[in-house]
Write the structure tokens for this entry.
Amino acid sequence: MKRPLGTIAGARSGDKGGDANLGVWVRSDEAYEWLNGFLTVEKLKELLPEAQDVSRYELPNLRALNFVLHGLLGDGVASSTRFDPQAKALGEWLRGRVVEIPEELL
Amino acid sequence: MIRIGNASGFYGDRLSAMREQLEGGHLDVLTGDYLAELTMLILGRDRMKDSSLGYAKTFLRQMEDCLALALDQGVKIVVNAGGLNPEGLARKLGAKVGYVTGDDLKARFPEALTANAYLGAWEIADCLNQGVQVVVTGRVTDASLVVGPAAAHFGWARDDWDRLAGATVAGHVLECGTQATGGNYSFFTEIDVTRPGFPIAEVDEDGSCLITKHDGTGGAVTVDTVTAQLLYEIGAPEYLGPDVTTHFDTIRLDAHERGVRISGVKGSPPPDTLKVCLNTLGGFRNSTTFVLTGLDVEAKADLVRRQLHGAIGEEGLTWTLARTDRADAGTEEQASALLHVTIKTADPKRAKGFSRAAIELALASYPGFHVTAPPGDGTPFGVYRAAYVNRDEVSAKAVLL
């Protein structure tokens, strides 16, 4: 069913120099299995078109994926002209995107 | 077990947190993180104006209020509030103080406004082992503020990788204060986060811990709030630090009646190099936001662009048109789009001239011209970058006053 990703996923994002990180987690093993298959680098770029050079890491023990969006913030928070120069709300942007979520996870 | 609290997640955090943590229940150590990458730049500019500054001034105010209380309760204070001048801060405190120095690498990076290696936990542990009541550091990793006291308390060895890794995770959870207890939390509607309490880690001898908070404080410590903070500002699962490499894919979280237990964390030797936080002055910046209301939004934006380019030139200007407007809107605000423009330039006069050029458009531009806030004189901005140096190029040391 079409629902915002944040219906079942939490997220937290922030800055490290010119890179942003975006952690996404879910709250059951079934949901993690789905998330891990669904949220590829390609899918993330589709949902957040600003993302260019992305690394993706799996943390099954936390039912989480961590993405590093390289270069999103230019030369860092003090220099960046990006709206939200510390990428604090990047995760909430992602949670607001509407995606196809299996009904049994809702 | 050692009970370590946190009372600050950044320079500017809740001033009363120190007192709340001291009065709320028992602690052995109270820590505070005051240093972000950006904070080093802010302190660097303070130091340029007055070489006796360069530390987090709010910590001094907290100590004026709370030092006697902490000493009375036997609570040790461990903070990185020393910033660029730990000795200067340490000498202002009326207690048995130790400070950690050696992180400043400005001599090695003369072009930088600030250059500081991320030091680790062992100099903090040295200070505590020698009986100080307060430890003030400059740039240490945030987690070291927890690892140092735990290592000193239990007498850990430098190759107790799993123990050090476990305490590093505890430190990572605590370092952003209320971000571990429901602050900035995706599922905030499920708990009461009106005034979240500050977090506490009860660290055991094996490096495992219980994350909790004082009874009666707001917010919550759940597997989800702790997970959220574990995911903050991390990269690969191998989390590199000066004392240990912590494997985030080995962390185990379990719900507990008083919070969340963290166990199972594996550690391995740290890299041979230390990370250095470098801030250089990048130039000057200034910005404003034009409000474009109603019809012809794109054409209005185009007119402002042409006018401002004509007045001060295109170089260094970044424009963003946010189409927050909607057609046939029921409120003026909903009818309005925002056109942001920022100038970055090496020339302070040009950054200042930007304001004049923008305001001179007030009666000569698009219909409905106004700005959200008038531009100021322009401010210097910093450029951050990380560098890496060999460990033997850095001589960290603990100094007792």
